[in-house]
Amino acid sequence: MTWGDHIRRRERGLLQKDLAREWKLDPATVNYWERNRFAPAPRHIPRIVDFLGYAPYNPRWTPGERIRAQQEALGFSRQRFAEVLGIHESTVRGWGWGWRKPSARFQERVKRFLRSWFSTGR
Question: At what angle do helices 45-52 and 16-23 cross, to 10 degrees?
């Protein structure tokens, strides 16, 4: 499923214009997301996750794809995510696109960061 598949608000009884107004977006943007014409920019993902009440992830995703999804759910740019993890931006890009596989050590580092991020209420 795509972000658009998850965003579809028909079950919630909302109109696109209502959701767009709440998110301060053009209704066409919400329409494009729902029709999978394009994916939401990373800066919009935290709002979408709040709206859904969950972060949509596919259990078949690789560790790198899950890391990329977490980065997007936080609304972090690749550069910012790399900074907080203390690694190079190209490493994060490689994980997210499947060019590289994060080592177990880095997967644990990401988990620790996420636990601390969410436990401090940021």
Answer: 120
Class of 63-119 in CATH: mainly alpha
Three-state secondary-structure class, residue 92: helix
What per-residue confidence (pLDDT) applies to 120?
63
Maximum pairwise Cα distance, the chain: 45
Check: pTM over 0.70? Answer yes or no. no
- Locate 50 and state its tokens: 């709040």
pLDDT score of 95: 86
What's the rounded Cα separation, in Å, for the pair 65 and 39? 15
Asked whether 93 and 58 are in contact (CB, 8 A), the reply is no
Half-sphere exposure of residue 22, counting CA atoms within 13 Å on the CB side? 12
Residue 3 to residues 9, 19, 83, 122, Cα–Cα distance (Å)? 12, 15, 26, 23
* Separation between Cα atoms, residue 109 and residue 78, nearest integer Å: 16
